[in-house]
Amino acid sequence: QVQLVESGGGLVQAGDSLKLSCAVSGRTGSTYAMAMGWFRQAPGKERELVAAINRHGTGTNYADSVKGRFTISRDNAKNTLYLQMNSLKPEDTAVYHCAASAASMFIVKTEDAYDYWGQGAQVTVSS
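Below the sequence we write its predicted structure tokens.
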């Protein structure tokens, strides 16, 4: 079994930056075999993909709403996934979840293809 634990969320003002981390544990070398992603869910809205990254960190994909502001990265030696969020806006307020897809090495965009999920980290951006 694989466990994902997010950290780094908080309350910030519009224009500020935050960096989320997702620590992966539970299966030896687990991050090496999995594509990963960050999702978010705002109150009253469906969960949406924010960013995705392939197994080696050589390929990424972003939602249009965060392109140029957010950067997804990973350190497989540390079994950790990151999301650097710059120029935050009030509409970025949501619970952010990291996720891992055990079946794929490549970028995964569909929610159903992810097998493991973190509990979520709250990000609140005030105007």
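The mean pLDDT is 93.
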